[in-house]
Amino acid sequence: MRWLVGWSSTAAGALGGAVGYGLRDDGRYDGGEPYGGQVGYDGETLHPVGSQLLWGDPDPLWAVGDWRPDEVRVVKADTQTRIAVLGTCGASDEQLRVGLFAARGGALRHLTAWPGSYTAVVQVGRRITVCGDLAGARPVFHTPWAGGTAYATAALPLADLIEANLDFGHLAALLAAPDVPAALHDSTPYDGVRRVPPGHALILRAGAREIAGYDPVASLAVAAPPADPDSAVDGVRDALVDAVRARLSAPRHVPDIDPGPVPGMGPAERRAARGMPVPGIGADLSGGPASGTLALLAAGLPGMPGTVLGHGTGAGERLLAVTFNDLTTRGREEELQRAGALAANPRLHHVVVAGGEETLPYADLDGPLTDEPGPSLVSAARHRARLAAGSADHFTGYGARQVLDAHPARLADLLMDRKRRHLVRPVAALTKADGSVLVPARVYGAARRLARTPYRAGVENLADRLLHRSFDDDPGGAVGASLAALTWGGPGPAARWLTGEALAEVSVLLQNSAHRAGVGPGQRPGDYRARAALTRHAADLRILEQAAEIRSQRLHAPFLDNQVVRACRALPETLRVQPGARAAILRTVLKGTGITDLPPGWGAPTHGTTTAAARAGLRMATDPLLTLFDAPLLAEAGLIEARVVRKAVRAAASGEPLPLPGLADLISLELWLRRLLSRRGTCWTGTPARARAVPAGIAPQRRAVSSGG
Fold first, then answer.
1. Which of 536, 514, 505 is nearest to 197 (CA)?
2. Comparing C-alpha atoms, which of 256, 311, 303 is closest to residue 280?
3. What pLDDT score was predicted for residue 15?
4. Residues forming a β-bridge with 48
5. Is 685 exposed, middle or buried, given 0-12, 13-18 or 19+ CB atoms closer than 10 A?
6. Could you give the C-alpha distances from 559 to 242, 398, 405, 573, in angstroms and in order?
7. How confident is the model at residue 29 (pLDDT cuts 50, 70, 90)?
8. Which tens digits make up the pLDDT trace of 336-391?
């Protein structure tokens, strides 16, 4: 894991010690103590473990973890004005300096408009500004601490700092309504640690905090201005090309040198066994349109995207394309053939990773502790097997579906904008998939109800459904999923297995948010639901990256970059909702860069393989999962009853049509809690042993329902 952490105190030296300790007369850090007078409980000096200081007293900032030298840049205008950029950023030092001057005047959007994926921190006197991203893949967290505010790009260090207990309301909301921002709000699994919403920045002035948005959202009162589809797709192409080029232009990273041969192993097998990626740049090549687009762009752009000269093939020009072939399930044969046809490009070196039963979901329940829980924890070993054959810099197509496809609730947006004729093709496609003549009336009726339902009424309806345990059967097929999504928010797939008290608490959270002053997102329901889905997907990708991490490897998801997200949001809804829109857009993107030779059927959807793998994994791991829920921590916290979940695991393994994503949510949360409570140590040095998150273990607090809150 890598993160940055710092704080802003109410006044220089407010926590004891001399003001300015650790600084020279000119205001620069003197190399002594990392900050002036900031002390812990017993007078000890606090430092993050494994950190490098970026600037010191009175508002220090550290970079923690295995950052590469080119991933940490600090540009100064003077002793009181500077900017730190951590991550992959395509801006030059001069552009950073211009952005710093703009931020000094209060303009924040400039800090988020460079290609790449990064976090920007600006210090102007005693004012600190930390910008999160639009998708939520690089979040910012904060908590009150010692009279000021501590902030970080990970929640666990802040939880250690304040010895936070678990927030059981947040954990219940994660299971009951994971896609509803009103339920989660700005909470985290740690009580007292808060999250900055995507598209916002944290502004600290001498310890006082403010959350400010830097990107406009679509208005509910006025229809969006008509957008030209061709120019919007051109904008997506330019943003994607800039995002890929930012990665290609970064300095090449060479992992630790291979110590030598192993009998019976080739170089690739040896690297994978030792947990070392291949030097250079590579990409996933699943056969789908997103990964294929990135692989072809990275291989086709100038800049020698492949291995480093003198390492690997020695050619310095071939991009490593990795395809995962799941031998336990069927249904992806055509997609694998398309991946092979794409890999015939002479600028690609194709590697196929075969996965057997050992790579099924739930096959390996051990793993590292991640910052937060996420459903990807149950399949981390599956992804690690693929990534172990990848490169030091590895492109992935994560996020393409969320930023390019139309959420079903966007059909209501079209009705609100009086664009009914654009519903014909998507409704016809659903009718063809279902085969029922009643589909058009059902879909149109649901979209019309959503268009006429205020946000507050939608949230109150969800709260009532949770309170009375009103859950629909698992919606099968595209029509059922679309009808279920045509609401302001619905119960999560794991909600049916929660206790009544846990559901009642989430219901109280929703009712309180609905009655809050100024309620409502100010957006159309489709745009609102699409942003929430993107945030959830980006958060899970962040957890997956931590859980499946390969030493010295960086995963790159250009579709989640700020500029790519902005370009995709500019696409007109009338284009998004058409069947096959994502593949058509990406085909046009490739055509605009000179790539036209695509295999037949490129972009065709694949169905059922993920569900089949999850069910096969459940069958293989039934006994370990039942043991896991013999005495689960979730039951100790009052969120579930162990016998109910054990019964659900047996039923799902035997083939009953239960919502498998809900079981993944439950199992991954139980795994995360066990890893959190079994950890030893803390993210800070110089602190007493008690200074870590959840020091007392599972200790449920009084519920909002029982307290009348």
1. 536
2. 311
3. 40
4. 684
5. middle
6. 11, 7, 12, 18
7. very low
8. 899 999 988 888 899 999 988 999 999 999 999 999 999 999 999 999 999 999 99
| Predicted pLDDT at 34 | 41
pLDDT per residue as tens digits for the range 518-565? 556 778 899 999 999 999 999 999 999 999 999 889 999 999 999 999
Residue 459 CA: distances (Å) to CA of 145, 431, 523: 33, 29, 14
Q: How far apart are the C-alpha atoms of 154 and 140, rounded to whole Å?
A: 7
pLDDT reading at 223 higher than 70: no
Residues 6+ apart with CB under 8 A from 52: 62, 63, 64, 67, 72
Residue 508 host element (H or E): helix 500-514
Running DSSP on this structure, what letter comes out for residue 29? Answer: B
Q: How far apart are the first and last CA of the chain?
A: 37
Neighbours of 417 (CB within 10 A): 16
**Cα separation, 597 vs 45, whole angstroms:** 61
Distance CA 134, CA 119 (A): 11
Alpha-carbon span 488 to 313, nearest angstrom: 53
pTM: 0.91
Q: How many whole angstroms separate alpha carbon 192 and alpha carbon 480? A: 38
Amino acid making up residue 561: D
Q: In the structure encoding, which two tokens stand for residue 624, read together?
A: 């370990």
DSSP conformation letters of 272-312? HHTT-PEEEEEEE--SSHHHHHHHHHHHHSSS--SSPTTST
Place of tokens 């500019």: 570
Residue written as token pair 């030598």: 260
